[in-house]
Amino acid sequence: MSVQKEHQMPYRVVMPASNTGRMNVLLRWWQSAVQNWQRRKMIAALEALDDRTLMDIGVHRGGIKRVVDGFNDAELRMVPIAPERKHQDASYADLRRAV
After folding, report:
1. Residues contacting residue 15 through CB under 8 Å, at least 6 positions apart
2. On the CB side of 1, how many CA atoms lie within 13 Å of its CA?
3. Which of 22-51 are b and which e, b meaning 16 or more Cβ less than 10 Å from the residue's Cβ?
4. In 3-state terms, what secondary structure has residue 51?
5. What is the pTM of this model?
């Protein structure tokens, strides 16, 4: 005895053709907005580095934007491995007590 199972099509959401064009425009706009945000974030991170560190990685301060423009999407998503240092303002009295 053999049992034959009927083939079923997977459930799909079908959108009218007029909505797909708008969705593509919105998707491209969103992707562009995210990429621009990541680009600005990477530029800010590199500009926060001191000149010696920039020279160590082979980037001049004036060429940061040009270098970041050459990054692909995966490179723009990179995050620093080392945690950011918290900046502490030390008053003159604190410095005198430390000596």
Report:
1. 23
2. 0
3. eeeeeeeeeeeeeeeebeeebeeebeebee
4. helix
5. 0.58
Q: Which residue has the tokens 């060429």?
A: 63
Q: Choose among 46, 48, 96: nearest CA to 70.
A: 46
Cβ neighbours of residue 67 under 8 Å, at least 6 residues apart? 46, 59
* Mean pLDDT of the region 18-44: 88
Give dist(CA 96, CA 3) in Å, integer.
89
One-letter amino acid of 15: M
Task: Answer whether 45's CB lies under 8 Å from 84's CB.
Answer: no
